[in-house]
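[#protein-structures] MJ: dropping MurR/RpiR family transcriptional regulator here for a structure pass
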Amino acid sequence: MVRTRSTQKNPAGSAARSRKVAKSAPAEPADGMEHSLLVRLRGLRPTLSPAEDRVAEKVLHNPRAAANLTISELATAASTSETTVLRFCRRLGLPGYPSLRLALAEESAPQRIRKAPASDISADDSIDDIIAKIAYIDSSAVEETAGQLDRGALTAAAQAVAAAGRVEIYGIAASNLVGGDLQQKLYRIGIHVSATADPHVALTGVTLLGTGDVAIGISHSGTTTETVEVMRAARQRGATTIAITNFPMSALAKAVDITLTTAARETKLRSGATASRIAALTVVDCLYIAVAQQDIDRVLEAIAETRESVASHHQS
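AK: finished. structure tokens for MurR/RpiR family transcriptional regulator:
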């Protein structure tokens, strides 16, 4: 998702260089990579009302069964009204309930279903169960993130980063691990980049940004107060701001110019940031390669030179 904005005057004056960032419209998904209705629904859940969320729970729990229900039956199952179900459909960008049933029927068709583990991680799981469930969750996060990733937003983000005088990356806890990975990749191809998890350091850094610079905020939930604050500050300085988040209607997404969304379903053991980290790293890899493609000959030369610089530190 790309937002247009009027470029604010850069308080840093001549220290910033002005570059035009393409604000292209989102491209169509590649063949076989549809924007999944269920992926969109999971991303919207934090913004739904309690009654709408009960409808979402029924739909996500068993899409095939929900597709076979009349609007009255789904409303009753979710302990709500038909009006709420219709409002739920509109939140998903659908004109009415028949469109929801058709979309659910298509997504739950046998050829589109990949065998999923029967439950979340439990105390009774064997090692084989754990491996199978984690492999399913992580691979689903990668596939669904790739399927719904906004091509126009990714292009605009890559162009901004490739042309940036300076790039600041910010994320807390597991998001900082993702930020560190992006920093390492961009650093090796000659991008002036830094990453931090310290909100004071981040606010200090973005204060020195201006037009032509880029700030990237990473937060799975999109609700981390410090990350939102840093992105707002960067935007006020005239920098192009980019978010990597799972929720397109989150506070972080609303605070930036360009949003790159993930599609991760976490297990109950969320503190480890498992699938969300894998999904965010997928976006990071796509962004890095898209940036590198902007000047691929120079990038290949930089990679070769940086590899050679540490060659003597590897044992044969």
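MJ: nice. The longest strand covers residues 240-245.
AK: one more thing. Residues 6-34 have pLDDT under 50 and may be disordered.
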